[in-house]
Amino acid sequence: MGEAGGVTLDADLRLDRPGGFRLDLRLRVAPGEVVTLLGPNGAGKSTTLRAIAGLAPLTGGRISMSSQDWDVPPRRFTPPRDRGVGVVFQEYRLFPHMSVRENVAFGLRARGVDRHAARRRADEWLDVVGLRDHSGHRPHRLSGGQAQRAALARALATTPEVLLLDEPLAALDVSTRARVRAELSRHLARFGGATLLVSHDPLDAMTLADRLVIVEDGREVQSGTPVEVATRPRTDYVARLVGLNLLGGNATGDSVDLAGGGRLVPADPVRGPVWLAFPPSAVVLHATEPHGSARNHWPVTVTGIEQHGNTVRLHLEGRPTVLADVTPAAVAELRLAPGTALWAAVKATEIRAYPAEPGEGGMAGGAG
Ligand SMILES: Nc1ncnc2c1ncn2[C@@H]1O[C@H](COP(=O)(O)OP(=O)(O)OP(=O)(O)O)[C@@H](O)[C@H]1O
Predict the structure, then answer these.
(1) What predicted TM-score, i.e. pTM, was given to this entire model?
(2) Cα(115) to centroid of ligand 1, in Å?
(3) Residue 159: closest CA among 219, 131, 117
(4) Does the CB atom of residue 39 touch ligand 1 within 6 A?
(5) Which residue in 31, 3, 303, 71 sits closest to 194, CA to CA?
(6) Which pLDDT does position 2 carry in this prediction?
(7) For the residues of 231-273, what is the DSSP string, one character each?
(8) Boundary residue ending a domain (223, 242, 261)
(9) How remote is the CA of residue 42 from the centroid of ligand 1, in Å?
């Protein structure tokens, strides 16, 4: 189900909004690839999704799916219902007066699938997302995580070539978010089409994306794998936003053996393959080996120093290699320079740990 392989989304998006905003963005998303658009408020992320869905016509450029043109102004415009696009909107926008099953069947019915077949397909998708028991319920009876799954099932039921997700986890509370993120990641891995996801949460972006495209003021400022972008930020916004140490490893007992070497202990109990994430600001530096309660400390060497606004970002090589944000005062106090040997420490409570899917080890090693 949901296989749509072989089709690449190729978009050269030019869109002028009244009021002066201009989108000018080139995007290619391969089948099976998850691209996350990351950017500040007003950067043009939602406009990008709306343009691809056919909800905001381009003023220039082109949107093509393989050989088929969807939008080539002023020559051609394919209306939304004729594009192979599934959309999961922010807040999910489930129809409140319909049952969960009717919601999932809606896109199929709109495309002319008969009632019986649409219900059957909807039920199959509700099985996939684990909501079969809720198929007769109205959406208001669903939890946030369940509503997210229903919206995903609704989008995938039409077998789209392109899946668009606008802040798919933003409506969830922190405790549900990690679980739903892992579920979503699993569903996206199975989806054979092109996925374009919008987020301004670095953790969602880093963990769900194969590739990040950072957008500021309607333009791409940087793109690359999450690790590439995190380790080599090219703007202050990117540095602040995606500045996240992300380390893959395997949990045994209460500690995690990191794929790139070294060992860390998160506060949360974990088992098996995991990701550990913590911001560079959580890394504390010591001139000599710290004693006391800090379980996570290890020797590092400064290999890079970059000023970003009021903070200084350090590249610290060790086991693990991490990024640390410190104040200019700390740089002076510790006499930091490339080659300086130090001790890095991170509190267990600063480390977010969450299960990794088997085979995700490609990103392991994190900031390196
Ligand atoms: N219908 C519209 N008409 C005119 N201008 C619009 C319209 N929709 C959005 N804009 C403008 O286009 C720009 C990009 O908005 P967009 O919603 O795409 O940004 P975004 O990156 O999704 O931001 P956010 O993270 O806040 O959702 C903004 O300056 C916005 O004010």
Answers:
(1) 0.73
(2) 37
(3) 117
(4) yes
(5) 31
(6) 39
(7) HS--SHHHHHHH--EEEEEEEETTEEEETTS-EE--SS---EE
(8) 242
(9) 5
Residue 209 shares a structural domain with residue 317: no
What ipTM does the predicted assembly reach? 0.94
Question: Is 289 exposed, middle or buried (CB count within 10 Å of its CB: 0-12, 13-18, 19+)?
Answer: exposed
pLDDT for 204 = 84
Which residue's alpha carbon is at the smallest distance from atom 11 of ligand 1?
A: 21
Q: Which atom of ligand 1 is nearest to the CA of 18?
A: 4
Q: Is 45 in the pocket of ligand 1 (CB under 6 A)?
A: yes
The helix, strand and coil proportions of the chain, stated in percent and rounded to the nearest 5, come to 30, 35, 40
Q: What is the pLDDT of residues 222-247, one digit of tens each?
A: 999 887 787 666 776 776 676 678 88
Nearest protein CA to atom 6 of ligand 1, as residue: 17
- pLDDT tens digit sequence for 105-118: 998 998 889 999 99
With respect to residue 29, please indicate whether it lies within any of the assigned structural domains: yes
Structural domain boundaries enclosing 66: 9-242
Residue 275 has a pLDDT of: 81
Query: The domain that contains 218 carries what CATH number?
Result: 3.40.50.300
Cβ 221 vs Cβ 40: under 8 Å: no
> What's the CATH code of the domain at 253?
2.40.50.100
pLDDT, average across residues 92-108? 94
